[in-house]
Amino acid sequence: MNRDRTELLYAYAVLRDTGAAGDGPGTVTGATGVAGEPVRAVREGGLVVLVGSVPAAEFDEEGLRERLEDLAWLEHVARGHQRVVDAASAGAPCVLPLRLATVYRDEAGVRRMLTARHTAFGAALDRLEGRAEWGVKIHTVAEGAAEAPAATPPPPPPLPGPRSRARPRAPRAATSGRDYLRQRAAERQAREEEWRHVDEAARGIHAALATLAEETRLYPPQNPRFTGHPGRNVLNAAYLVPRERGPAFTAAVAGLAGRAPQDGLRVELTGPWAPYSFVAGEPSREPAHDTGTA
Amino acid sequence: MTGTGSGPLAERRLSLLDLLDRLLAGGVVLAGDLTLSIADVDLVRVDLRALISSVEGEDRP
């Protein structure tokens, strides 16, 4: 596969060839890539792929398999990938980011790919031009956890009724087993009610934001162990929003975020992102067809 | 764009998760010469999470 090849081409993104990406060797986006390399353009049929030469030892199939589970390496590569995509996005009306670790042997391979997918790329660029992706995550604030560091102070939830947090009281030995079970059941019920309330509120926020978006995509909730939030991640969503509607969208998020603590929730906005979540053109779905199964 | 790099560690890590959501489950998927088909993304992510927790333990001040 990589016979005697010491370098491979890491591909970052596809965009329209407007000539703005510059000609010849040297940096294209001004940003360095995943291996600290300059990024250049490979052109074919009116399209451009941004690529960089990377060491084969790290980025061939075997190298990738070994390294993908090395968090420090993965973070380095992910941030390098994003750096190039962000820099490209700043200067182009539309950029199609590629999935992490898309690697080619040489420019001929990149050109073949561009030619083969010319129509699909053109359609995706048309569809996504002038749009940006925004990320919105919702976490619970209380959930019996310690106060969030440097976060909005957890407001006393206005929920009437028992708070599961305040009563991890050990069952009194004298109490009958039936009382104990009843108490446990009441606690469970209170917890379920709280969850239901929280999920409803999160769904309401998502529905409100979806009216401002052309497409939405839901990601699996992030694990609270790694988010730095004590709360539960109840929504992890991406929204495709026309640029001119961006201010309205972020204002809507801010408004909802301001009210969310009343429901025991915290809303967090990220972006604008390149349309990572929407390149497949299948709202809320993994690319199944149209993208050529690997 | 999200202010990465300047924020506290927790914030940076947070946005790393957001980034990995997109880079491992979004983006154009191509069958190139050498495209690693990250079909086992879920496995990668599981291991990733274990790694993150160990990192967290290390660089906490």
Automatic annotation (TrEMBL), chain A:
Subcellular location: Gas vesicle
Record's keyword terms, sorted: Gas vesicle
UniProt xrefs under InterPro entries: GvpL/GvpF
Keyword hit for Lyase: no
Transmembrane segments: none
Main location: other
Ranges for region Disordered: 145-193
Bias type Pro residues, positions: 151-161
Biased composition regions of type Basic and acidic residues, renumbered to the chain: 179-193
rRNA-binding is among the record's keywords: no
Protein family (similarity comment): Belongs to the gas vesicle GvpF/GvpL family.
The protein's name: Gas vesicle protein
Organism annotation: Streptomyces hiroshimensis
From TrEMBL, chain B:
Assigned keywords, A-Z: Gas vesicle
Intracellular or extracellular location(s): Gas vesicle
Family: Belongs to the gas vesicle GvpA family.
Chief location category: other
Organism of derivation: Streptomyces hiroshimensis
UniProt cross-references to PANTHER family, sorted A to Z: GAS VESICLE PROTEIN A1, GAS VESICLE STRUCTURAL PROTEIN 2-RELATED
Protein name (record): Gas vesicle protein
Domain of life: Bacteria
